[in-house]
Each structure stands twice: as structure tokens, then as C-alpha cells.
Amino acid sequence: MLWFFLCIGLLLAGYFIYGKIVEKIFTIRPERKTPAISMADGVDYVAMSTPKVWLIQLLNIAGVGPIFGPILGALYGPLAMLWIVFGCIFAGAVHDYFSGMLSVRARGASVPVIVGNELGKTMKHFMNIFAVILLMLVGVVFVLSPAGLLNNLLKDFIGWDNIGIWVGVIFAYYILATLVPIDKIIGRLYPLFGALLLFMSVALMVGLVMSDKPFYSQGLDFTTNFNPKDLPVWPLLFVTIACGAISGFHATQSPLMARCMQNEKNGRFVFYGAMIGEGIIALIWCTLGLSFYEDTNALQAVIDKGTASLVVHEVSTSLLGTVGGILAILGVVILPITSGDTAFRSARLIIAEFLDIPQQKMIKRLLLSVPMFIVGYLITKTDFNIIWRYFGWANQTTAMVMLWAASAWLLRRDKFHWITTLPAMFMTAVCFTYLAFAPEGFALNWNTSVVIGLASMAIVTIVFFAKVRSKSVSNNIETEVFNE
Q1: CA angle at 46 for the pair 42 and 47, rounded to the nearest 5°
Q2: Cβ distance 41 to 360 under 8 Å?
Q3: CA of 451: how far to CAs of 33, 96, 390, 426, in Å?
Q4: Which CATH number covers residue 248?
Q5: Per UniProt, what is the membrane topology (predicted)?
Q6: Is residue 436 included in any domain, yes or no?
């Protein structure tokens, strides 16, 4: 139990200490008007209070990532918790801060525009395609996972079993939430959902403390790979646990709140702080996975039987009883639904930016949204496990690119760029190793894949410094597009 609270303490200390350092290096300008003020349109650019923006940001970025990912990561033992803590503080929260604040400085621009500003037009076009693909995968994952949770809940209590109905209901909600102004549904309901999520996460930990389950049933051995299938920690752990440590999906979501935040001084709380909040949720579910079952073989058996959804169902109903379990599951269901709708919303805005189609009129929002939802529905017919694996790699690759873009922004202004460059290098090695090793990639042997990953990291780093330094500008010159 002490280990769990130590990890929580480290995350909170990361916010107050390292988060402040990151903010100082970025250099906020509280006197500047944010896009919410200077570009208010009543649809996507809408000023909202800071607590509300934080809660919406938390729900936007969370999804099932900080729940399903840590449950699957628990198969590797307590080492997963180290990745959540240090990955969140030094990589994920830094990534989220820069993806949000660079969007604020670029009039609420989406991640492809930010990447294009810093890494060139080729990378911008790449990210336009890649980000939309990622968001479509996210949207589909966040349809199927809550549908599975709701279906398991009703099947267990009343014997009703029809996941297709839930898929249809969730898609219908996504269509509505994607089209209406952001303050009509998202702005009003998400703060309440966020409060429920936080309350139920704490309730589950209280339930674990009050139960006869020991914390960390296999002990705190950080040198052993507990995975029953003997899958290698490197690079799989760092792709399996994404949203609880670092996630490129967040770079697609942060611009939504960059369009609603009232002052740059709120950026550390909204962007860095929301990621710390997600890290705490991830720690809770990783701890539950490591403690509720006697060993990782038992955990793997439940996952094989019904994916991580069944783990959530068993843990929640066992620790909190029938009523409490239902509320906890509903709290978990909220996460993917409130990220799925904003995933489709972000995809609409990225496509709109690329095609230069204003989004104030409903007919133009429909023009982009209908084809997206048709494609999304067709993707739901694919096996969930396959979608999840491709989502994991695409997710971390997006984070890698965003971190390199942030490094370019810092380097050109003679700021301390290593806060983003080191995690960018790390994630480059992760992504290329995974691509070489994974069955959905090139399926090479592990040793060869590691060499490819490290070599790719070295090449990308050398190319980055050669190209960015050649275009270095004075720190006194504001060069970001749309800055004033």
C-alpha cells in the first residue's frame, strides 16, 4: 500500500516541481488574448472556466487507455507502475503541455498545423493523414469498449445480450456530440462525468483497502517479467500502457481546450495537470490488476475470456457490491464515450482545416461528419484486438512526432529543448522497435528489432539537429504562424 501512495506522491510532486520548470522554459504570456477570446465563434471557440476546461480535458484524453492499458500492463508486474509514474511526469505531461500551448499560440490549430509549422510541409501532410486515421481508430475503439462494458453489465444482471444495439446507441450519441457547439453537451455534462469518474476511482481503491485482497499479490519485484506469454518488456510495455504514461491521441485533443482556455497561465493546470490526473487513474487500475488476482496467469485468463472489459466488471462488482459496481462500471464507460465523441470532433476539425471549410454552419459540419461515421462503422466490423494493436502503435508514433515538433520550436528559440528531445528520442526507439518486432509490423526477431529501433533513433536525431539548426532564428523574433 505504501508503494501505491509513494507513486501518487511522485506524480503530484511532478506537477508542482517539474511542471513548473516546463512552464518556465515555455514562457507563458498571460497578457495575450487566447483563441477563446480573440476567435470566439460559439461553436468550437468558446471561453469556459478553468475547472470546467480541466475536467473536459481529462475526459477528452482519458478514454479506456488509462484503464485497459494499465490492466494489460499489469501482466508485466510492478515495473508497469514505474513507467506510468516517470513516463507521465517526464514525457506524457510534457507532451500534453506543448501540444496544448503551441495550439494556443497558433490560434487553436490542430496537431498537423503545429507539426507543419515546425517540421515542414511534408510532415504536415503526413500528420493530416496519420492523425485522421488515428482518430478514426480511437473513435472505433471507444465505441466497442464501452459497448462491451454495458453489454456485460446487462447480460450479468438481466440476461440481455446484444452488443450491436449498444454500438448503435453510442454512434448516435457521437453524431450528436460531434455536430453541436462544444458548450451545449460537452461543456455541460463532462464536468459532472469527470467528478463521477474521480469519485468512483477513489471508491475502488477504498474497496481494495477494505477487502481481504493483499496489495501486489506477487510482491514488488522490478527485475522479473511476469507476462504469462513471455512477451518482451521492451518495447511492448511502452506501447501497451499509452494513455496513462504518454499518448499521441492527446495531441489531437488538446487543441479542443486550447480553443476554450481563457488565459495562458492556466495551461499548466489544464494540460500538464490533466495528464497527471490520468496518470493517477492509470496507477489505480494497474494496482487493481496487480492486487485483485493472485497472479498474472489468473489476470491473463480473465483477459483471454472477455478482454480487459471483463476485468473491469469483475473488479468493480466484487469490491463495491452490485450497486457500487454498477456505478463504477458506468464511471469507466464514461471515459471512452467522452473521448470517442471528441475524437470524431477532432477529426472533423482537422479535415476542415485541411480543406479550408468553415464549420459555423451545420450543413458543412454534416458534410464532413457523415462520411467519417460511415467509415467508422465499417471499421467496427474488424476484430477488436487487431484494432487495439494498430491504435497502440499509431498512438505512440503521433506522440513521437509531436515531441519532435515541440523540440524544434524550443531549439529555434534557444530554449532548453532537452525536456522534449529526450522523450522524443526514447519514443522514436520504442515506435521503430515495435514496428520491426510486432506481428502487425514486420515480425522480425527481437534482437534485430532492437538494433533497428536504436539505429532509427540515432538517424532521426541526427537529421533533426541538422535540419532544425540550419533554420535557427533569434529568440527575440516571434516566428510561429498566426502568433499575433
Answers
A1: 145
A2: yes
A3: 47, 29, 22, 14
A4: 1.20.1740.10
A5: Multi-pass membrane protein
A6: no
Residue 395 near residue 158 (C-beta atoms within 8 A): no
Domain contains 479: no
- Angle at the Cα of 279 from the Cα atoms of 265 and 35, rounded to 5 degrees: 30
Q: Are 5 and 12 in contact, with CB atoms under 8 Å apart?
A: no
**Helical spans, DSSP H, in 380-417:** 384-412
Q: Which of 106-120, 154-168, 203-217, 377-391 has the lowest mean pLDDT?
A: 377-391
The total domain count for the chain is: 1
By CB atoms closer than 10 A (0-12, 13-18, 19+), residue 139 is buried
Is 397 part of a structural domain of the chain?
no
- pLDDT tens, 106-149? 999 989 999 999 999 899 888 888 888 877 777 777 777 788 87
> Which residue segment(s) compose the domain that 108 sits in?
1-389
Contact 357, 158 (CB under 8 A): no
Q: Identify the pLDDT of residue 384.
A: 63
Residue 476 has pLDDT above 60, yes or no: no
Burial 401-427 (b: 16+ CB within 10 A, else e): bbbbbbbbbbbbbebebebbbebbbbb
Closest CA to 340 of 163, 195, 134: 134
Q: Are 116 and 127 in contact (CB under 8 A)?
A: yes
SS3 434: helix
Counts for the chain of helices (H) and strands (E), in that order:
20, 0
Kindly state the cell numbers that stand for 109: 490549430
Task: Let me know: does 147 contact 166? Beta carbons within 8 Å.
Answer: yes
In three-state form (DSSP H/G/I as H, E/B as E, the rest C), the secondary structure along 114-171 is: HHHHHHCHHHHHHHHHHHHHHHHHHHHHHHHHHHHHHHHHHHHHHCCCCHHHHHHHHH
DSSP secondary structure letter of residue 480: S
d(CA 314, CA 421): 41
Q: Please, are residues 127 and 115 in contact by the beta-carbon 8 Å criterion? A: yes
Average pLDDT over residues 475-484: 40
What residues contact residue 477 under an 8 Å CB cut-off, 6+ apart? none
Q: Which has more pLDDT, 227 or 196?
A: 227
Q: Residue written as cell 475526459? A: 59
Q: Which of 316, 320, 309, 335 is nearest to 198 (CA)?
A: 335
d(CA 474, CA 281): 41
Q: Say which DSSP state 264 is in.
A: G
Which grid coordinates belong to 241?
A: 500502457
CB 353 within 8 Å of CB 112: yes
| Amino acid in position 105 | R
Q: Is pLDDT larger for residue 83 or for residue 316?
A: 83
Give residue for cell 528559440. 413
* Residue with the three cell numbers 501505491: 4
| Set of cell numbers at residue 66 | 488509462
